[in-house]
Amino acid sequence: MDKEEYMDLVTRKDTQEIERIVLEKLKFGLSEHIHPVLLSKLRLSIEEDIFTKDLIARIRGFVWSKEVKKEVEETFSYPSNWWEAVKARFFPKFLKRRYPVKYKYKDVVIHHIHICPHVDFHTSFSQEAHINFLAGRDKFNSSINEY
User: What is the pLDDT of residues 15-39, one digit of tens each?
Assistant: First the structure.
């Protein structure tokens, strides 16, 4: 292939027909309802993700809470390290009897937590209903403890 044929190949442009598509702008937004008591406890931070160049908006705060019930849903086991996993998967039964697989056990725990964003200890209003709810001394809590 001589230089002229090569230049002809390089300068020739392959073309491809592209379908015409009409796009429209779609407006979107985010909203969150925030109780006035919570508003004074929130921190807003806006940061840039260094990899994607997206903005990350975070709203952080705290609410008063109390754990009212804790229950173990199930317990699962898994080999304690990579070698035990190899033994469990590939060893024949007679080797497993001679060198038993060592497992670790983990509980799946469900925590029932009451939260009350309305509690504000800086006001003169009575907080008795909210405190009773958090402490588990109301009708709602007695129905939770039944299941």
Answer: 566 677 777 888 878 787 777 777 7
Structure tokens at 113: 């937590």
Q: Is 21 part of a structural domain of the chain? A: no
Position 137 in a domain = yes
Which range of residues forms the domain containing residue 84?
33-144
- Has residue 110 been placed in a domain? yes
Buried b (16+ CB within 10 A) or exposed e, 103-141: eeeeeeeeeeebebbbbbeeeeeebeebbebbebeeeeb
Query: Of the candidates 77, 146, 128, which has an alpha carbon nearest to the alpha carbon of residue 107?
Result: 77
pLDDT tens for residues 59-107?
A: 888 777 888 888 999 999 999 999 999 999 999 999 999 999 999 999 9
Q: What are the residues facing 60 on neighbouring strands?
A: 43
